[in-house]
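dumping this here before i forget
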Amino acid sequence: MKELTEKQAAALECIKTFIQERSYSPTTRELAKELGYQSTSTVHSLLDKLAEKGYISKEASGPRTIRILKDLISVEKAQEENERLRNALTKAEVAISAMASFNGLELMVHNWHLNGDGEPLDNFLAENGMDNELLETVRSALGK
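structure:
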């Protein structure tokens, strides 16, 4: 999706807000007033660019014909957040699974060492039977 300029983004946000508040689209004059423009020609130019970039559609004639096509900005942000959360959940599941393999032994991890004794966690895990592949998985899950 093509990036919006600051003015285009402001116009799109103004259209969205207007439609949410009133359940119908604004006229070019109403947009000009909301955006602080004296002339509607600037608004027409902004609307043409928004339509060209795929954010809105508008009829050539007639008032209140502006339609939001996609709320892609919100969709993209939601997708990024979902991916971030999915990755965090996967890492947490791996770490929990790895820790469960110690038959109920509870570990307090603090700064990649076992809490209090100064012994590196990876040494402890290796000495207590964790294979290298699982050890690497735990390191990765803990970000080490």
